Amino acid sequence: MSLKNKTLTYIFLNGREERINSKLNFPYEFFYGYNYLKNFYSEDNLIEFDYQNKSIVLRFLEKFLNKLSDLPFFFQYITTVKNYRIIKNSDDIVMTNQRVAFSSLLMIFLGKFRKKINVHIFVMGLLNKKVNYKIKKNFREMFIKILFSTSKSLFFLSKGEYEFALDNYEKYKDKFVFEPFCIDLDFWRPKKEINPISNEINVLFIGNDGSRDYEFIKSLVKSSKNINFNLITNKFEQDDFDKNVNLLNGSWVDNKITDEEIKDYYYNADLTIIPLIETLQPSGQSVALQSIACGTPVLITRTSGFWDTSKFKNKDNIIFFEKNDTDQWLKQIETIYKDKNLLLKIRENGLKTVESNYSLSGFYKNLKNHLK
Q1: How confident is the model at residue 55 (pLDDT cuts 50, 70, 90)?
Q2: What is the dihedral sign for C-alpha 332, 334, 337, 342?
Q3: Which of 69, 172, 185, 323 has minimal CB crowding within 10 Å?
Q4: Exposed (0-12), middle (13-18) or buried (19+): which is 179, by Cβ within 10 Å?
Q5: Is the pLDDT score of 197 beyond 70?
Q6: Confidence band for 130, pLDDT divided at 50, 70 and 90
Q7: Which domains does the chain show, CATH number per domain?
Q8: Predicted TM-score of the model (pTM)
Q9: Percentage helix, strand, coil, to 5, in the chain?
Q10: Does the structure show a pLDDT above 60 at 1?
Q11: Measured in whole angstroms, how far is the alpha carbon of residue 11 from the centre of its chain?
Q12: Which string of DSSP letters, residue by residue, matches 200-224?
């Protein structure tokens, strides 16, 4: 079916309009296909959370539902007359994570009363959280099933979470799609050469999400020798460390550190580390792929949420750890850095893996096929 004469609406948290309106060079992976798909529709819209919006009634409702289900309802940041008009006149709506999806449910329900609206949702860690209280668990399941029922397609970025959904929500399995996160390879390009040998190892850590193991990072830094750490995160204070650390506070949304600057940090690093806690969420996916695409090997904790273990092999194109043990990580960091043949092998194989499987061009084509 042609997309002409149709209206496309994307809903994000925030940060996209600012990048579009800036004169900076930036990658497009966190637009989840918006910049590509909008070219096939007669009209397109971009909605973002507005944290200036305040509503006592909506705040009371969202707090009640949050407490009832432990799900991310934030109605007040997105529920406006303007946004409702956009939604009710849309043909395809793409929700870029479950937070915007649950927060948009009120307007989606109202809009669906007026016309058919196809809702597509990216899922990342929705099924990860374990709830102990039976009542809360039942309400959580109810709202998840409502969300699934409302949607035409659900794109899972993690193969582990996708398979979990197939096993536990069989009724909706025809809506489930495994669509791994892909990156903009026109932006994230490999550095020409491996960094020259030095007495000190330059290690990079980037991240702010709840699935990173921040306490382990502290332990790793304190136990290390001859390792310089660049930490790009909002989760630490400079007082947390007394040596070997260059701490840069920043996140993707605030853009205090530009994408070009991030790329330079990848280039200057010998290794990128991503220690994680156990999770179904595909945590570390974007950082890992970006780093590998820039030619910097990645060390990461293997979790249930790792996006696709069939594409990655330990000491072939990535370094996996089964647990976050300080001695094991430090030993592996030093071993890899000293073994230039192994370092080169992981670098070259990693580049081939990313270029073959995680390019935005393939992601765009798959997404368009599901929206037809």
Answers
A1: very high
A2: negative
A3: 323
A4: buried
A5: no
A6: confident
A7: 7-179 (3.40.50), 201-357 (3.40.50.2000)
A8: 0.93
A9: 45, 15, 40
A10: no
A11: 15
A12: SEEEEEE--STTB-HHHHHHHHHH-
